[in-house]
Amino acid sequence: MKTVKLGNVCEKIGSGATPRGGSEVYQSSGVALIRSQNVYNDGFRKEGLAYINDKHARELENVIVQAGDVLLNITGDSVARVCQVPKEVLPARVNQHVSIIRPHKDILDAKYLKYFLVSLLMQQYMNALAASGATRQALTKGMIEAYEIPAPPLPEQRAIASILGALDDKIELNRKMNETLEAMAQAIFKSWFLDFDPIAGVGHHKEWQDSPLGKIPKGWRVLTLGDIAELYRNTFNPSAFPEEVFDHFSIPAFDEGKMPARDLGITIKSNKFLLPENCVLISKLNPRIPRVWFPKISKLRAIASTEFLVLVPKKPYTKEFIYSLCISAYFIDTFTSLVTGTSSSHQRVKPEDLLSIKIVCPTDLVLEEFTQKVEPLFKNIQSNKEQAHTLASIRDALLPKLLSGEIRVKDAERFAEKSL
Questions:
Q1: Rounded CA gap, 408 and 395, in Å?
Q2: Full 3-state SS string of the chain
Q3: pLDDT at 349 over 70
Q4: Domains (ranges, CATH) in the chain?
Q5: pLDDT (tens digit per residue) in 8-63
Q6: Pairing of β 31-34 and β 92-94
Q7: Which pLDDT value is given to residue 87?
Q8: Angle of the 364-404 helix axis to the 154-189 helix axis, nearest 10
Q9: What is the residue-averaged pLDDT of the chain?
Q10: Which of 41, 154, 228, 374 could form an S-S bond across to 317 if both were Cys, CB 3.0 to 4.6 Å?
Q11: What pLDDT, on the 0 to 100 scale, is given for residue 24?
Q12: pLDDT over 70 for what percent of the chain?
């Protein structure tokens, strides 16, 4: 198949800058400033999106983002992440950690290019390239311009992008459904345990008592997280089992879609936590970016990065209650206030400080009612995640087969339709 150098088929390849004044000039509205934390392989994330005023935006006129532009992270731990910018984010600029790639529309389809760049082979290539340069973990403009891109006829590029896009649309629908389901569970938690609203099947709270956290229903208690959950600390070295495949719950896997990576032991270079069946993971790293995980243990052995703290509920408390607590605004605010470290990118919370967080705990009856109410929601969330993971695997497997000619476009269309 014909290939082209990316630099020869693009109108623009280039990164931006941080406005003078840095984060001090960020606003709650205005022109969006896209940073590496907004760019993920599974799509654009609006969380943490910064905004600048028109004056600072004019200083970055050389990096005006257009609808359909491909964005590539070019530095740091998130190097090689790729997405397209959605129209609703515009007008926008990018900072120095993100490159705009704008192909000539009559030669290279932008959506097709995005799928090629997020393919497993290209991700491995870009990460290796970034690690080999003079500046560690960085992709230069020259490196990007030299990429060799398979370039079938434009109609075929668009057909390939359409097939893979249909799978992505279903993945995105599942993600939005999960956001709704999780919001429902969190609304119940807030209503019952933070606002102390009447509880279905239990009724109004008729009597109240004083506590270190204010007035609470009579019979309820203020405990610490350490009273209702214990830290699981069982670590081992997966590389001692080089041929075994593990479900690897890592920070990057969480950020890419909250599904564990499946990694061979030989590829895992450090000790990990060996996860028990009934646990909740919470990241101690940079708690301003909440990472709380409700892992499902499969037939594979499950391991987690030691940047996570592994919480195992003490009876009668349940993982549904612990998880809902850990994603509540009250808990996140308290957890974030406990950070140590001066660097904003490497702040951590000590395990003993996590366990000292005070919480309001209900009676056993109310706890049981809550678990029964939210358990079906979490089962649906997990089912949607597994379906999305399967669809992503199909998408990733189809692209190289389409490019090599092993599968024809029409056959891929039929296969994708059956999968949806």
A1: 14
A2: CCEEEHHHCEEEEEECCCCCCHHHHCECCCEEEECHHHEECCEECCCCCEEECHHHHHCCHHHECCCCCEEEECECCCCCCEEECCHHHCCEEECCCEEEEEECCCCCCHHHHHHHHHCHHHHHHHHHHHHHCCCCCECCHHHHHCCEEECCCHHHHHHHHHHHHHHHHHHHHHHHHHHHHHHHHHHHHHHHHHCCCCECCCECCCCEECCCCCCEECCCEEEEHHHHEEECCCEECHHHCCCCEEEEECHHHHHCCCCCEEEEHHHCCCCEEECCCCCEEEECECCCCCCEECCCCCCCCEEECCCEEEEEECCCCCHHHHHHHHCCHHHHHHHHCCCECCCCCCCECCHHHHHCCEEEECCHHHHHHHHHHHHHHHHHHHHHHHHHHHHHHHHHHHHHHHHHCCCCHHHHHHHHHHHC
A3: yes
A4: 3-150 (3.90.220.20), 221-361 (3.90.220.20)
A5: 999 999 998 888 878 888 998 999 999 999 999 888 999 889 999 999 999 898 89
A6: parallel
A7: 93
A8: 170
A9: 91
A10: 228
A11: 83
A12: 98
Q: What angle do CA 81, 130, 394 make, to 5 degrees?
A: 40
Query: Tokens for 342?
Result: 């001066």
Residue 274 has pLDDT above 70, yes or no: yes
- How remote is the C-alpha of 313 from its chain's centroid? 25
Question: Could you give the CA distance from residue 274 to residue 235 in angstroms, rounded to a whole number?
Answer: 6
For residue 414, pLDDT over 90 is answered with no
Cα separation of 127 and 29, whole Å? 34
Question: Cβ(198)–Cβ(205) under 8 Å?
Answer: yes
pLDDT of residue 121: 87
pLDDT digit string, tens, across residues 145-192: 999 999 999 999 999 999 999 999 999 899 999 999 999 999 999 999
Amino acid at 9: V
Q: What is the largest CA-CA distance in the chain?
A: 77
- Taking the C-alpha atoms of residue 7 and residue 162, their distance in angstroms, rounded to an integer, is 24
pLDDT at 416: 76
Q: What are 209's two structure tokens?
A: 């008592």
| C-beta separation of 87 from 371 below 8 A | no
* Predicted pLDDT at 313: 97
Omega within 30 of 0 (cis) for the link into 150: no
